[in-house]
Request: fold
Amino acid sequence: MTATEHIGIVLLDGGMGQELVRRSCAKPHPLWSAKVLIDRPELVEDLHKDFIDAGATVITVNAYSATPERLARYGLENEFRRLQRLAIELAQSARDDAAVGHEVRIAGCLPPLFGTYHPEIAPEYDECLSRYREIVSAQAHGVDLLLCETMSSQKEARAATIAAKESGKEVWTSFTLDDRNPHRLRSGESAVDAFRSIGALGVDALLVNCSTPETISAELERLVGSFPVVGAYGNGFTSVDALEVGGVVDVLEVRKDLSPEQYADFAVAWARAGAKIVGGCCEIGPKHIRAIGATLLERGFQLSAQLPK
Reply:
């Protein structure tokens, strides 16, 4: 028996936004994945199916950029409920139609409210909490768990986590790390302190995401030691510094040195270090997820849709 045999790893899907923009052949828009949800919803369902077929055991609804704040910039605030409902229905349909032999769960999505990587523009805590409660009320009925993701500060994470916990659903909270200083969030706060503080709220899992794989690897061992269930899913950008609030993602450069096999090596190393959840974020597509799943199985891990008891 190998050291990893019978260890169950939850395999997340990859990044929806970048892949949807690519498949739509449309000019990138500040609403990003929500623009594709509006214009080409069939592409969203197809991508969910591709991730499931690649082996993902948890898929996340395509609602990252469908927040009231982002929609309001383009006069679409009245579309919030419809788009949230549509994102859930497309994920459910993809799961129902998938001809695979493994369980698949659906995660809701609580993203940064106003802009990714910019904690300085988040409103005060009470306003954050109120806004996250609105998102939870639109999603909780149709998902198996709620994922608070790409949190850049403890304030954002605390508000999102508390709103999610109020639903009674399983809750995962994920932070994005500073690629220049892997021990810190993009707010400058200690990553370990954030894990301990938000972990005390009773979340089911804590993760890191949308940082380079190298950044995640540099900090993961310390994070695994601070909380029982830890996960990781990195991005495929060279840097995120150029992305401004309300900007478009085509200002970011995609790495040319991160093939599916190379990314899978990072993910398997995270599992070996104690991560129980692995997957991908921006620029990590179905081929990467397939490579992760195959490599995990080759190394003696098992894939699961459920967290370890």
User: Anything to note?
Assistant: The domain at 8-304 is CATH 3.20.20.330 (TIM Barrel). The chain has one domain: 8-304. Residues 267 and 278 are 6 Å apart (CA to CA). The chain has a mean pLDDT of 93.
